[in-house]
Amino acid sequence: MARPNGFAYEAHSDGTVHITHHGRRATVLRGDRAARFLTEVTTADPQLVMARWTGNYRRGNERTARAHPRNRG
């Protein structure tokens, strides 16, 4: 599995956190979720944390799952 990369975040003075992926906004966190994110991103691998919080966490099996007989229309 390839490690996630290209994520960045900006913490704003109003308490919001903007997470971007390759320069495009992926999500905005506010309130308690933003505070929990900021705590977690400083204690773990930031790229993995941001990938998980944005839902952009690939497992590497998407192509094989798409070709499986039960997933064909």
Please report the number of helical segments: 3
> Helical proportion?
25-40%
Low-confidence stretches: none
Q: Alpha-carbon distance between the termini?
A: 27 Å
Report the strand count.
Answer: 3
List SSEs in N-to-C order.
EEEHHH
Question: Sheet bearing the most strands, described?
Answer: 3 strands, antiparallel
User: How large is the radius of gyration?
Assistant: 15 Å
User: What's the overall average pLDDT, rounded?
Assistant: 85
Strand order, biggest sheet? 1-2-3
> How much of the polypeptide forms β-strand, as a percent range?
15-25%
The shape is: elongated
* Structural class by sheet pairing and helices: alpha+beta
Q: What does this protein structure show overall?
A:
The chain is an alpha+beta fold and 73 residues long. The chain has a three-stranded antiparallel β-sheet with strand order 1-2-3. The chain has helices spanning 31-43, 46-54, 62-66, and strands spanning 7-11, 17-21, 24-29.
Highlighted features:
single chain, 73 residues, alpha+beta, three-stranded antiparallel beta sheet, 3 helices, elongated
Strand-helix topology:
Elements: E1 7-11, E2 17-21, E3 24-29, H1 31-43, H2 46-54, H3 62-66
Antiparallel strand pairs: 1-2, 2-3
Helix pairs in contact: 1-2
Q: How would you sum up this structure in a few lines?
A:
By secondary structure, this protein is of the alpha+beta class. Helices cover 37% and strands 22% of the residues. It has a three-stranded antiparallel β-sheet.
